[in-house]
Specification:
ten-stranded mixed beta sheet, alpha/beta, 10 helices, Alpha-Beta Plaits, 24% strand, TIM Barrel, 2 domains, globular
Length: 309
């Protein structure tokens, strides 16, 4: 989307003061839209390319203000008195947002807000003094940030003008040349690598991994600094064969700064409820001992590795 003074970016969240999205203190901007549908995704609000209504039932007091303003009749009221809560039928909802305007408790809200490049930069530059003091900067993730390439490249350029370090948190599934250019222009890449087996990758994410591996090798050949992030999902990404293949691949690249092993968690599960979506992953966390064994295996091959982001 664009307006007269430049492209608009759809942002799902901005986090100030992050320590896990690159070097130093960072402001992390999450853009909406992702080509993958990883079954363990902890940011489901970043998948779709349009604003979505978030409903937090624990904030709802059943006042019913939203019922008469819903022209699509997608909202009904369940229960009575203090136990009353609304029910949102997303099959009927036209995403107009009228209900949000009258929800004074914030039970209904948006996942997704449009920014101009200048508007987003005004937000992140509030933390500029922390970047200089800590060697930090701005990280743009998602979703997959390169799905909004015109906005992303304009925003990265704005940051460069102020000498602010930039990082992209990316799944690397980028097929447009402008998206690849954005990857090349960032100072640092945080690259998610999941399964190298093509069939497993399709089963876990919905798409093959050819474009991901092609972009990874291209960026590695040009010496782009990278931190590799590997989600440790039991039964999906943690097999010895898959980890061995990843190690072989990473050892062929000359610009991998670090490997982050990310154990499975359910921190994003509440957001599935807020979106009316099913959380499909059923997996137990990998034991601490197993995590350390995997870490040691990467380190034995000369790869600097840590557990967590």
């Amino acid at each position: 989307m664009s307006e007269a003074n430049g492209p608009l970016g759809l942002v799902s969240q901005i986090i100030h003061g992050s320590f896990v999205d690159g070097h130093g203190v960072r402001t992390t901007v999450f853009l909406k839209g992702c080509p993958l549908r990883c079954i363990w995704c902890c940011n489901p609000e970043g998948q779709e390319r349009h604003p979505e209504i978030k409903y937090t039932s624990s904030h709802c007091n059943g006042c019913g203000n939203c019922l008469p303003v819903c022209a699509a009749q997608a909202i009904t009221l369940d229960g009575t008195g203090v136990d009353a809560r609304i029910r949102l039928d997303r099959r009927l909802c036209n995403n107009c947002g009228e209900c949000i305007e009258v929800c004074y408790l914030g039970a209904l809200d948006w996942f997704g807000k449009y920014y101009t490049v200048d508007g987003l930069f005004d937000e992140v530059k509030k933390d500029e003094k922390f970047y200089a003091a800590s060697g930090g900067g701005v990280t743009v993730g998602g979703g997959e940030p390169t799905l909004q390439p015109a906005f992303l490249r304009s925003f990265l350029s704005k940051c460069r003008e102020r000498y602010i370090h930039t990082a992209l948190d990316t799944c690397l599934h980028t097929v447009s040349e402008e998206g690849v250019k954005a990857l090349e222009e960032a100072d640092l890449l945080l690259c998610d690598i999941k399964s190298l087996d093509p069939e497993q990758h399709v089963n876990d994410t919905g798409l093959p991994n050819e474009a991901i591996l092609r972009n990874l090798r291209r960026l590695g050949a040009m010496g782009k600094p990278m931190i590799i992030r590997i989600p440790l999902i039991p039964g999906h990404t943690d097999s010895p064969d898959n980890l061995g293949s990843i190690i072989d691949l990473l050892c062929s690249l000359r610009s991998v700064e670090r490997v982050d092993l990310l154990p499975v968690h359910e921190y994003g599960k509440v957001k599935y409820d807020q979106l009316g979506k099913e959380y499909r992953l059923v997996a137990q966390p990998i034991s601490h001992e197993r995590q350390e064994e995997i870490k040691a295996r990467f380190e034995q091959c000369g790869l600097k590795t840590q557990i967590g982001g």
